[in-house]
Amino acid sequence: MRVSPTRLVYGPLVVLVALSFAQVVFGQQAPLRSIKYNLSMSRPTAHLFEVSIEVQLTDEWKNKDIQFQMPKWSPGRYAVFDFAKNVQEFQAAGGVCPTGAKCKLAARKVTRVDDQTWSVPTESSNGLTISYKVFGNDLSGTFSQLDERHANFNGGSIFMYVVDHKADPVQLTIEAPAGWRTINGRSTSLDQSTWQFENWDIMIDTPTEIAPDWTKDDFNVDGKKYHVVIHSFGSDGGKRASLVKDIEKIVRAETALWGPPEFDEYTFLIHFAGDDHSGDGMEHLTSTQIIETGLLSDPGMYDETLGTVAHEFFHVWNVKRLRPFELGPWDFTKPANTRGLWIAEGFTNYYGHLMLRRAGLLDDLKFLRRESGTIAGIENAPGSHLMSAEESSLSAPFIDDAPHAQNTNLENTAISYYPKGELIGMVLDLIIRGRTKGKVSLDDVMRKMYEELYLKSPNNSYYLRGRGYHTEDLQRVASEVSGLDLTEFFDRHIRSVEMLPYAEAFGYVGLQLVKSQAKEPFNAGMSVQFDDPRTPVIENVQNNSVAENAGLQKGDAIVDLGGKPATNGWRSTLAGYKTGQSVPMTVKRDRRTIKVNLVLGEPERYEYKIIEKSGASAEAKALRGMWLSGK
Ligand SMILES: [Zn+2]
Ligand SMILES: [Zn+2]
């Protein structure tokens, strides 16, 4: 999955309980005779997906109950969303009507068991037909949308599974509105309406687009077919053809790193929403769902799309196949807990950027500038001193776009495993390259992980080959491949919050990290948002800060600062004062007007720049060339 690059901080400080590494036991039973899903959409403007599930039973199921369950969350996004909240009109009947026939099936009494589960008695029937509607009006890799323009679904948000039968083969038939065409990462023809899936998990791993006006462009790399499906809600500015060509360059760069991918065909499903709020990227086994907020014709959107493509396609290997142990098959009754998301998402962030460089779509300067920005985000975040990469991963259900009705202190206590993992990946890569004098890299480590823990590892479940890794596996494999003892690195920088050894890492490739005071120093310990330019509001007050000392609170509306009305230039107003000076300030809190004095502290925000190290050796420059080019 992808998050907004600006979203560097988020997540709680929690007391973490060590997880058992024991595999989750799934209560699978002998398969039912058949499970068939039917999806229709007779009233798109109502945003209601109509789902029916026909279950054929063996005799042993007579006079028992069958349970149907809506997942609480969906793979790739770790926050719990409780998709059952959008289910309505659940009904059940005994028996299954043969295709094309008209039947009157007897209604069955439905019992709602809990927030996500419905139970239906089979009585004497050898089959059950259930139906329900699901409301979906979010264009997103996690949710689903049905409206007058299209249907775009993530199966986890609309399809219930039969409890204890997630491993059974399933069939899906889609009845599209007249003139709408259906496509997904497992389509074998353009007029296809029925799909067979090995199991429910694979079905929900197949996001699908249904609309009258998407476009499809194709290319081949090393004998594999790639499809770029674009549904755009506005002009592409004539850039579609070159976008497809550049996506091919990314595919070539990433397959050059990993070797041949384990599929024959792969589909990029891309939306240009043009609504300025829908934006997402979600990885799947043979496809990705990418939603950009703008239009391809918008400034910057072209490069942003390539960035998302580079990230999501890297997930073909890192996370969809080489994955943390806990990621698949899943228990959808509670959130997934894994320590490895700084590898799964963070390393994918790092390599997503590096692959753009290796594909020739980003020059050295822009690549280093991007990483400098990530360093600034992490090193300026107060949560960096409190939350380790592993804790951040375990906190994913709270920080991965989770909605919070309760006020939290996440801005001050948490970091995201995306940028943190990105920096761990880069620094670890450079340390391995430097200490082995260019003989070994993180590329070698990742390839070895993929081989050992995916390709050559026996199936641990019905879901997918391989057993998944624990973070200890990365430490072991990295040490084995490089011959280095990395215990200290993992203990200090991954399981603890110690700052990464940037100087050593960049030194190997003739670069250095320069830290300088931000031009407009943040020395008040607060951030301010200007959603309404007339009423700036305090967005966050850092713990133990000047703002907290002055008694300011999140949500306070600033009336004036230093005797002037508060505007976007509030920081330059503060810059006119010196450390230790007192700045008068008036805020409104609910119906109260409060006057405070901010006694300014030391600058708390810094800029970071990765620059050429003077006198860098030819050896270091050569190592840098190998790193950036992958050769
Ligand atoms: Zn991702
Ligand atoms: Zn669409």
Give structural attributes.
631 residues; alpha+beta; globular; binds zinc ion
Write the layout of secondary structure elements.
Blueprint: E1 34-40, E2 48-56, E3 65-69, E4 87-94, E5 111-114, E6 117-121, E7 127-135, E8 145-146, E9 151-153, E10 161-162, E11 170-175, E12 181-184, E13 194-197, H1 200-203, E14 208-211, E15 215-221, E16 224-232, H2 240-258, E17 265-272, E18 280-283, E19 287-292, H3 301-314, H4 341-358, H5 364-380, H6 389-394, H7 396-399, H8 410-413, H9 417-435, H10 442-455, H11 471-482, H12 487-493, H13 502-508, E20 511-517, E21 526-529, E22 537-541, H14 546-549, E23 557-561, E24 564-565, H15 570-575, E25 582-589, E26 592-599, E27 606-612, H16 618-629
Parallel strand pairs: 1-11, 16-17, 17-19
Antiparallel strand pairs: 1-2, 2-7, 3-6, 3-10, 4-7, 5-6, 8-9, 9-14, 11-13, 12-14, 15-16, 18-19, 20-27, 21-22, 23-24, 23-25, 25-26
Helix pairs in contact: 2-3, 3-4, 4-5, 4-9, 5-9, 9-13, 10-11
One zinc ion (ZN) binds at residues 1-2, 283, 311, 315, 345, 348.
Explain the overall architecture.
This protein has 16 helices and 27 strands. It is α+β, with helices and mostly antiparallel strands and 631 residues long. The strands form seven sheets. Strands 4-7-2-1-11-13 form a six-stranded mixed β-sheet. Helix 2 runs parallel beside helix 3 and helix 9 packs across helix 13. About 4% of the residues have low confidence. The site of one zinc ion has 7 residues, from helix 4. The site of one zinc ion has 6 residues, from strand 14.
